[in-house]
Specification:
0% strand; mainly alpha; 5 helices; rod-shaped
């Protein structure tokens, strides 16, 4: 009888303790899974909002550039007015300020959500393209403003604007397809890894024109 009682007590304790431990482990796994799901949903939401905001801003800047281009070209051909050129320039400058106000922030956000592949395309193709084409467009504007010939500045500019439209479109398609497949954030192509210090990251900000060494 005593032995049976001891076995019963031991069995009860083992069942209770092991059951408690097992319940705790299962509960922790459930919490971890729920937390991972929540973090994943947050990543997808942030990436989706970022893709929409970036695409809208890029389209807005490109459209303002096109308006300024057409106004300058019309004025150069004697069909436009100084007022139309000035209005187009003001609209262009307005979105240019908006663009530059968040340039590095947008670059970093695209890298965090869409990986080094997205960040690299934005920096080397889109931003660089906007800078080069924008410089030529502004040169054409200055030419017509000074009543000089803008023929040289305008030559090939339509082609450059079309090329810029293409790289902007490609970035948009890339971000949308990554969202569709869920390959954003930690699962993005060449995803940015967790580092211990900003010094550990290899990327850099956008170079500022005129401040080159």
């Amino acid at each position: 009888m005593g032995r049976d009682l001891i076995l019963l007590v031991v069995g009860f304790l083992l069942t209770t303790v092991l059951g408690g431990i097992l319940g705790t482990v299962l509960q922790q796994r459930t919490w971890k899974h729920q937390n991972d799901v929540r973090l994943r949903e947050d990543e997808l939401q942030r990436a989706s909002e970022l893709a929409g905001a970036i695409s809208k801003l890029l389209d807005k800047r490109l459209y303002r550039m096109l308006r300024l281009f057409f106004a300058v070209r019309a004025r150069s051909q004697g069909n436009g007015t100084d007022e139309s050129v000035h209005t187009a320039l003001e609209d262009y400058n307005s979105v240019l300020y908006e663009w530059n106000d968040s340039l590095n922030a947008n670059l970093a956000a695209v890298g965090a959500s869409f990986g080094e592949a997205g960040r690299g395309w934005l920096e080397t193709q889109v931003i660089a393209g906007f800078q080069a084409t924008g410089a030529r467009l502004e040169a054409a504007y200055r030419a017509v403003k000074d009543d000089a010939s803008a023929e040289e500045a305008l030559r090939g500019l339509a082609h450059d604007l079309n090329a810029l439209n293409d790289v902007v479109y490609r970035l948009g398609v890339f971000m949308m397809t990554q969202l569709r497949s869920g390959h954003v954030g930690r699962d993005a192509p060449s995803a940015m890894q967790r580092e211990n210090s900003p010094a550990d990251f290899a990327g850099r900000g956008v170079p500022v024109a005129g401040l080159e060494d």
